[in-house]
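To: structure subgroup
Subject: Chain for Friday's discussion

All,

I'm putting the inputs and outputs inline so they're searchable in the archive.
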Amino acid sequence: MKPEKFESLSDEALHALADRMGLSLPPDLDRVFVAEEILDAIEEDSEERGAAGLSAGRMEETKFSCADFLDVDVCLEAAPVLSPSYNETAIKVLVRDPSWAFAFWEIAENEKQALFSVDGAMDLFLRVCETSDDGTPLDKQEFFDIPIAEEDQQWYINLPKPKTRYRIDLCARLDGKIKVLARSKNVAVPRQLLDENWKRLGPGSAELLRLSGLDSLDIEPEEPGNPQRILKSGPSGD
């Protein structure tokens, strides 16, 4: 089964397929992660069957079988279709973990035509901006730019700092002038490691952490920042 098949499904159809496969997923889980869970489950099930050489009787006891994959394909073909485009300029961002976020966006067709019809050098890029806890700009704003192409619509972004808030701007640069086409909501990135002052927590929380054996774990201290960034080849931002 190819991941592309999921792109035409509505959120309801994806969750219905996950339920049919016996996956217990939160009802508000984003479609990107629902599709990922379905693909992981299919791959895991296929590997287990190949390694164990399961009999027909044993296969009936499992949550779904490789023989059902054709039925899943039929389900995908018959599922409600989700429009791949809403013809509006917008950008959304989902935080995956302390180091990664997933951004996806769209530029309305009329705005895209206007941008690329103007004479001069025009570039598109994502500006990843650090924001304060309440979402207001920082006195000295930290940001970096990711060049993107006209056909790009999504990007995994390596975040420099955990326990920080970010906003992603979809921008165009024309002859050195920057125009913000759309801005995402501010998102909070979780901490990467447990706070050093965990022993100051309430008695109940501290006791649970003690019972977990945290004291005996050799946990490296968190390094400041994360210099890794994934960029396309091309000019960087200002």
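Points worth raising on Friday:
Residues 54-71, 225-238 have pLDDT under 50 and may be disordered.
Residues 3-78 form one domain.

D.
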